Amino acid sequence: MAKQLIGALVVVVALLLAYIFLTEGEPAKRPGFTWNLPEITNFDRIEIVRGEETLVVDRGSGGWRIQQPLAFAADEDQMEQVAGLFADQETRLVVDGEEPADSTNLSRFGLDTEPLIQVRLFDSGQPVVRFGLGSTEQTQSGASRTWIRPEGADRIYRVNRNLPTVLDKNLSEWRNTDILVLTQEQQDALTAVNIQYGTGRIRLEKQGQQWQMVEPVDAQTDANLISRYINQVDTLRATDFADEVDAAQAGLDPPMYVLTLELGEQERFELRFGGEFTRSPSQEEGGESVPVTPEQRRYVQLNDGPIYQVTERTVDQFLWTTGDFRPRDVISLERDQVVRIVTVDRDGTRMELVRNDPPEEGGESSWRMVEPEAIDPVDAAEMRRLLTNVADVDATRFAEGVTVEQAGLHSPRRQITMTLADGAEHVIAIGSPTQPTTESGSARNMDHYVQVDGGEIFELRAYKVNNLVKSPEEFRPDQATE
Predict the structure, then answer these.
(1) Are 157 and 35 in contact (CB under 8 A)?
(2) Cα(282)–Cα(290) distance, rounded to whole angstroms?
(3) pLDDT, position 315
(4) Which residues have CB under 8 Å from 133's CB, separation 6+?
């Protein structure tokens, strides 16, 4: 009996092994569906065809690259999403529905459109599947599903992803927008930065662990600002590509600004910026801001490579002049040093605020309004906010080359005269916004040109300006807002 049992077990094991051997490598199918995407172990190429337009992206030793319709580095994040759909065992597509490929279903699920997007996938250089991309629908739970039709199939299938959001993109979305991205090793190897703009020249050098400005030699600098600049120029990304623009059209021949990063003696990156980079002060007519034409686009080129388009924010991040490295404290006082504030607006409106008798030690002074109406005391929180902003004024950046007229300081929006306990006075003049205003724009959201005691013109952040241009009504205790 025992021998018979052992013999039966041997037969069962043999049959099981035979089954495993015969079915090994067969793609897994979801129960109830006649087809599923084949497993891809080495996803290295994708082709997407829409009529006469073809996109080809493949992976080589240097990473993913677009081969058609132009040769260009592919966006790594985009290709990660694509690989996740087809090659990642945890996230790859799964079929969760199917229908006959009759005319009704082809029309219903967007698989009869012309031209139909066709997707072809490769594994180790060999094509493994081609399918047409149909429409996307939402399930009752809100999940997105997409219908596809494998080449030559008489049935269509629904997969558990929104494929068009990943695959149906324009060419620029497949391209790598990284212009410059230094690795940590390259950042550590950075030894010098050269800046050239017009006749101006700046050279920053790393001496030991500290960065210093060595040219121009007599420039006032803030070590923290130099470090901040170095830390923000290691990454530059484009917003668009300028394939149809040549160097002359982009303002790169010659460039308006050149930034060169030196990594020892062996490697250097030269960023050439084109276009008009000086900020355009708003034009003033009769005290009103008049819209001006939009500023031209900003372009950049790395080491004679492709020309890219970048945002103005990016430009501001990289294009520093000598004044941007200077200490930015313009006024730095204690609030209790201020005893009187008089403001005069462009329309002649005048406001006078006077501090009441000094408080007892550890207390806070109260203030009263003398003009244009008597208020005693004024709102403490609003007064505290004003004192903070008149006693501590720091420039966002110095406005080199901007005249008093361009800055709107010949007829300031508001002039603030601050009197100190020792009788000294400081005058803060607030001019025009640093950017042109439009009919839909608001000066409240814009930085402004400012001048203190007739000195250098600088730019001041919008929120600080707003705290300096409060109306008399806002100092009433029942009207002030936080």
Answers:
(1) yes
(2) 7
(3) 80
(4) 116, 117, 118, 119, 146, 148, 163, 164, 167, 168
| Both structure tokens of 61 | 């030793």
Longest dimension (CA), the chain: 118
Per residue in 119-131, pLDDT tens?
Answer: 999 999 999 999 9
- Which residue is it, tokens 């730019």? 459
> 280: closest CA among 428, 440, 464, 437?
437
Q: Is the pTM of this model over 0.85?
A: no
Give the integer Cα–Cα distance in Å for 461 and 395. 8
Kindly state the tokens that stand for 382: 């609003």
Query: Rounded to whole angstroms, how far apart are CA atoms 451 and 399?
Result: 10
Reference 179, options 265, 83, 75; nearest CA is 75
User: Cis peptide leading into 372, omega within 30 of 0?
Assistant: yes
What residue spans define the domains of the chain?
43-174, 178-325, 330-475
